[in-house]
Amino acid sequence: MEHDVISEDSSHLRQMPGHHHDTIKNVKIIGFCSAKSMVELTCHILENATSLEGLTLDTIFDGNNNPADRLSVHEVGRCGRIHSPMVVPLKGAMTNEVYQARWPPAAEAEAAGRRVLVRVYGEGVEVFFDREAEVRTFESMSRHGHGPRLLGRFPNGRVEEFIHARTLSAVDLRDPEISAIIASKLREFHNLDMPGPKSVLIWDRLRNWLKTAKNLCPSDEAKEFCLDSMENEITALENELSEDYQCVGFCHNDLQYGNIMIDEETKLLTIIDYEYASFGPVAYDIANHFCEMAADYHSEKPHILDYTKYPDTDEQKQFVQSYLSSSGEEPDAEKVNNLIKSTEKYTLASHLIWGLWGIISEHVNDIDFDYMGYARQRFEQYWLKKPAILTCQVVE
Q: Membrane spanning segments where (predicted)?
C-alpha cells in the first residue's frame, strides 16, 4: 500500500490528525530526509498504530530508488501537536546517542505518559562489533523477557521500549544490597542459552582491536601506548589465563552502572545494551564490572577514573559469594577464592580491551568524551597492576 510522499517541509506533519490505525502491523517509510521529521513521524506511528509489530525507516533510498542521505537525530524539540511529545537526549552514552521520546498523559486518569527510547548509532562503531549480530542478541533477550522490546529500526539506529525503572548511579555499585542483586542477576545472565557460537571471543577481539588501533594511530600515539609490543602482551596474558579453569558463559562485557536498571519497588534488575556481549570467561565479566566501579560517567570530567573505588577484598568476596550462591548452593571457600583470583587476573584483559577501545574511539567517534584520556588511564593501570597480579599468582 502506497502513501503520499512526505517532503522536507514537515509543517503539515505536525498537524496530522490523531487517528488510530488498529490494523497496521508493519510500516516501512522510504526516503525520509529530515532528521527531526523522522523522529516526529516515528512518534506518531508508535502512538497511533496500536497493533504495530515492525517499523522500518529507510533513509537510504527515496521513492524512485535514488540514494538519499543517511540521517541521525541531532535536534531536540517538540514533536508538534501530536500529543506534544518531547525528544530529550540522555547523558552517559559513549558508543551511541540516546534520546527519550515522551508524551504527556492522554487522560487525567493516567499517572504517566508513554515513552520510547530512540538510539542513534555512533559513527564508526562498526569496528567494535557486528551490528546485525547485536540486534539479534537484542531480539533474543527481548523474547526471553530479559530486556526492552525492539519497536522499530532505521538505518543508523532503532526505537526501543522504554523501561520504567531507574538507571543505577556510580555510587549504587558500592551499595552492598544492590551489589548482591547485581551478582545474582549476572549469574542468571551468564546462564542464558543464547544463539550463535559458544567459543570465547575475548582474545580475537583484543587482536582485532589492536590491528585497528595501529591502522588509525599516528606513530607518536602508537609509541606512547607501546602498540608495537602489545601483541606479545596479549599472547602472554592469554597463555597465563588459559592455565586457569575456564567457566564460560554468555557475558555482557560492559557491565557499567549505566547499563543496569532497577525497579525501586520490586528491586528487580534489568541489564541493558548488549553491543559487546558474547560468550567468554565469566571471570572476565566480573573483573570488568569491578573495574567499572572506578568510573562516574556523569561527573564534570566523565573520563576520569578513581581506582580508590575499586572493590576491596571484602567487597569482592561478598560479590563472588552472592554470585555463586544464587544457584541455590552455598559455595565452599576454595571455590570462592579461585573465582576471586581468576577475576583479579582478568582485570588486566579489561584494561587492555578498554584502553584499545579508547584509542579507536578517539579517531572514529564524535561524542563529547575524552577517549584518549580514558585510554591512558586504562593502560596505566595495566602496567601498574600487571607485576603484582601475575607475580602474586605464581607465588601462591
A: none
Task: For CA atoms 169, 174, 177, 178, give the dihedral sign.
Answer: positive
Residue 31's region, left for phi above 0, alpha for psi from -120 to 50, else beta, is: left
Distance CA 305, CA 109 (A): 45
- Of residues 132, 103, 102, 105, the one with CA closest to residue 117: 102
Q: What angle (nearest 5°) sits at the alpha carbon of residue 70, between those of residues 370 and 151?
A: 85
The rounded mean pLDDT for the chain is: 82
Give per-residue pLDDT as tens, 315-351: 999 999 999 999 888 999 999 999 999 999 999 999 9
Domains of the chain by residue range: 13-161, 166-395
- pLDDT tens digits, residue range 33-44? 445 556 667 766
Q: Does domain 166-395 have CATH number 3.90.420.10?
A: no
CA of 357: how far to CAs of 57, 71, 295, in Å? 30, 25, 15
Cα angle: 72, vertex 123, 77; to 5 degrees = 25
CA distance 255 to 186: 9
**Higher model confidence: residue 218 or residue 71?**
218
Least Cα distance to 166 among 297, 261, 89 occurs for: 261
Nearest to 197 by CA among 248, 122, 141, 253: 248
Q: What is the pTM of this model?
A: 0.75
Enclosing H/E stretch for 153: strand 150-154
Q: Contact 257/176 with Cβ under 8 angstroms?
A: no
As a whole number of angstroms, the distance between CA 41 and CA 29 comes to 10
